[in-house]
Design the sequence.
């Protein structure tokens, strides 16, 4: 019986069988998301804090700030408390316009809003992977198993365990993008085009752009292959037009985020390593990382406390366990004879994902870097496994159908062959992996691996053989019994090794902050260990303190694109930290126990007046200033004074009194969009020290008002609203045609 006949035979099942299949889909869906339920029942608990976690140290406090701004009737364009001030919306890391999270901030606490959004995305992921499976002609059972694997994938759970909310949300949308791209490629209908545009817009609004980039890259490859060699394409030219139209409409839907971000990128000239091969392969996976993704550990998910190979080892996707049974089913789909060609396409794309993830471990990555545009914009290439997780889950569903539909003898033989091959490989690794670890001298993990690694590999092989035996035996049982056994095996496998990493605990960042000075509103603080390595100030763990206590910090926990002024500041901190700290009004270093230590050298105030005779120093970049220059400026500011009257995130009002003309220096990040008036008359906001703001004034007493107005946001919001109106019109037309 070939595949098409088998699928048709399922369509001819009695009504009660079909209804049972539908109920089974809901049952598997319930099993897929039930492990996410603690997110909704844990009140104020948060994902655990760790050196690798961004939840309590960035995601939560930034959304608390956004929530507070929204409640006060302001859109949070600018956050003043971190990094000497940053364009919060333009940096896009918090996804302020993402419709599946931000609206929740008006109804719940920021913490509960994030957790509710993650739970919602678990449902979205299951539904999307199920629809993708049905698009690929999987049976209901195969599609539901595929959806279970994708929803509880190691990639999603490992990144959720460390609070990478944007990555988890983007991952949940990937199956939907593949589904609509395939649908639109085969059948150019208006609703399919609207689906492509909706998912495109959501992916571009979600926040972190890395997963959307990989999703668009691989869906584009997939669409191109389907349009060129696909057998069931109705109208290739029309499909191409609908695909391009859907993507363009989706881009315009996301204009409210993309245009401010594009303005930030175009404003930036200090790019550092971004875009280079060295940046693209940073934190790539190794051969042993691939082993950890394929082989379960008897001790559970490595995120939960196993020793590290080396510092910065657990960059999350390195420990994203795929599943032994998942690999068994996926491999079966590739070696089972069938007339459909998409499993080979998905297998080839999964291999491409692996080659990207391995970086310089293979010579192929340098070629990919030269041929694939944009691949050098992101580090951590292992995040390409977000795409592989979806593809392999679909292959696993196809492998299940190969074995299960009609109790296919060829499918059982393929499953047995794949099981014996994998088992032999696992036993072989028992003798090859420990010596490899010894050779690369990962001593931090060797003491553990010597005791447990061989046992892990042997038990993995036995688990695989046992699963194979169970599957072989249940092949002769009724389909319902066999299917339930498979589901139980998957739930046990993925549940133990992936879902247990979903833990919650009290927020450790809410420790009491020992205030030892009363002038923290007039100065800044920084982590005491910021100078240990270049660029460390970019990854400050003081963000929650800054947001919740309104204390300004020099550092940030923002790893994406920053304004030129911020990059200049961080370069100055690397080159001459004392002068840079004094110029940025940083008076205190914060020790790990959260008390303050006086910084060396007396800092300049955050707001001060530079007289005309010293103005030339303000034109010198902060990277070129030294302590002698700061001393000269300190002596000059004693003859003038200023008083802050209003100090809000996007508005500042200062009363100044000076005996000579000069410039009012505000040690906050310079960025286009800041406007100023002196006694009601507009004046330019100039650049001081290559990173701060300067406002020219004449001698005497003046009232200076400085405010931020994003020049791109009104146009961007208008474009998005227009696109939304067009989308609603198109989807309404499509629904009327369908009815």
Sequence:
């Amino acid at each position: 019986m070939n595949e098409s006949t088998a699928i048709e035979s399922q369509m001819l099942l009695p009504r009660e069988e079909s209804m049972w299949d539908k109920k089974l889909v809901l049952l598997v869906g319930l099993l897929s998301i039930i492990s996410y339920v603690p997110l909704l029942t844990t009140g104020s608990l948060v994902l655990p804090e760790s050196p690798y976690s961004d939840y309590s140290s960035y995601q939560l406090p930034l959304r608390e700030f956004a929530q507070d701004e929204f409640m006060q009737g302001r859109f949070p364009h600018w956050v003043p408390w971190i990094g000497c001030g940053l364009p919060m919306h333009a940096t896009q890391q918090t996804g302020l316009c993402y419709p599946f999270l931000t609206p929740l901030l008006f109804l719940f606490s920021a913490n509960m809003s994030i957790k509710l959004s993650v739970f919602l995305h678990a449902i979205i992921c299951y539904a999307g992977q199920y629809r993708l499976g049905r698009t690929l002609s999987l049976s209901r059972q195969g599609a539901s198993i595929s959806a279970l694997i994708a929803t509880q994938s190691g990639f999603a759970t490992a990144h959720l365990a460390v609070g990478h909310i944007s990555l988890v949300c983007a991952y949940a949308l990937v199956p939907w993008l593949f589904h609509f791209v395939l649908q639109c490629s085969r059948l150019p209908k208006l609703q399919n085009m609207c689906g492509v545009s909706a998912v495109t817009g959501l992916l571009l609004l979600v926040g972190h752009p890395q997963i959307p980039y990989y999703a668009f890259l691989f869906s584009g490859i997939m669409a191109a292959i389907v349009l060129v060699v696909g057998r069931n394409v109705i109208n290739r030219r029309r499909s191409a037009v609908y695909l391009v139209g859907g993507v363009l409409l989706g881009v315009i839907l996301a204009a409210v985020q993309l245009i401010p971000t594009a303005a930030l990128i175009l404003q930036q000239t200090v790019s550092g390593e971004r875009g280079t091969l060295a940046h693209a392969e940073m934190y790539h996976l190794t051969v042993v990382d691939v082993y950890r993704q394929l082989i379960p550990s008897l001790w559970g998910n490595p995120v939960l406390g196993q020793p590290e190979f080396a510092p910065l080892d657990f960059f999350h996707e390195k420990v994203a366990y795929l599943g032994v049974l998942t690999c068994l089913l996926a491999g079966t789909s590739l070696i089972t004879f069938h007339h459909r060609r998409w499993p080979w396409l998905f297998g080839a794309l999964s291999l491409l994902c692996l080659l990207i993830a391995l970086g310089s471990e293979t010579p192929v990555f340098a070629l990919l870097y030269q041929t694939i545009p944009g691949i050098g914009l992101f580090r951590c290439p292992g995040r390409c496994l977000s795409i592989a997780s979806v593809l392999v889950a679909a292959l696993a569903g196809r492998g299940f159908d190969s074995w299960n539909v009609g109790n296919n003898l060829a499918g059982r033989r393929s499953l047995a062959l794949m099981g014996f091959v994998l088992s032999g490989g696992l036993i072989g690794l028992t003798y090859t992996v420990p010596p490899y670890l010894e050779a690369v001298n990962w001593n931090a993990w060797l003491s553990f691996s010597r005791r447990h690694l061989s046992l892990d590999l042997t038990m993995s092989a036995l688990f695989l053989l046992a699963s194979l035996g169970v599957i072989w035996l249940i092949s002769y049982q009724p389909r319902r019994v066999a299917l339930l056994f498979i589901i139980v095996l998957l739930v046990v496998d993925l549940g133990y090794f992936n879902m247990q990493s979903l833990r919650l605990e009290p927020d450790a960042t809410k420790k009491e902050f020992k205030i030892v000075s009363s002038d923290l509103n007039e100065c800044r603080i920084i982590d005491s260990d910021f100078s240990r390595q270049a660029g460390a100030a970019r990854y400050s763990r003081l963000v929650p303190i800054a947001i919740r206590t309104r204390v300004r910090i020099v550092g940030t926990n923002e790893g994406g694109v920053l304004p030129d002024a911020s990059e200049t500041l961080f370069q100055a901190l690397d080159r001459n930290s004392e002068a840079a700290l004094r110029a940025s009004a940083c008076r205190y270093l914060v020790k790990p126990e959260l008390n303050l230590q006086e910084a060396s050298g007396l800092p300049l105030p955050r707001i001060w007046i530079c007289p005309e005779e010293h103005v030339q120093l303000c034109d010198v970049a902060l990277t070129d200033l030294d302590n002698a220059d700061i001393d000269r400026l300190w002596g000059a500011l004693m003859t003038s004074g200023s008083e802050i009257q209003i100090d809000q995130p996007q508005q500042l009002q200062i009363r100044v009194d000076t005996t000579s003309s000069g410039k009012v220096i505000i040690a906050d990040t310079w960025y286009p969009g800041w406007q100023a008036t002196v006694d009601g008359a507009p004046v330019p906001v100039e650049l001081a020290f290559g990173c701060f703001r300067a406002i020219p004034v004449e001698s005497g007493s003046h009232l200076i008002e400085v405010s931020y107005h994003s020049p791109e946001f009104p146009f961007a919001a208008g474009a998005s609203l227009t696109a939304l109106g067009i989308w609603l019109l198109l989807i309404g037309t499509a629904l009327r045609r369908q009815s």
Summary: The chain is about 55% helix and 10% strand. Confidence is low (pLDDT under 50) at residues 1-17. Residues 3-36+89-501 form one domain.
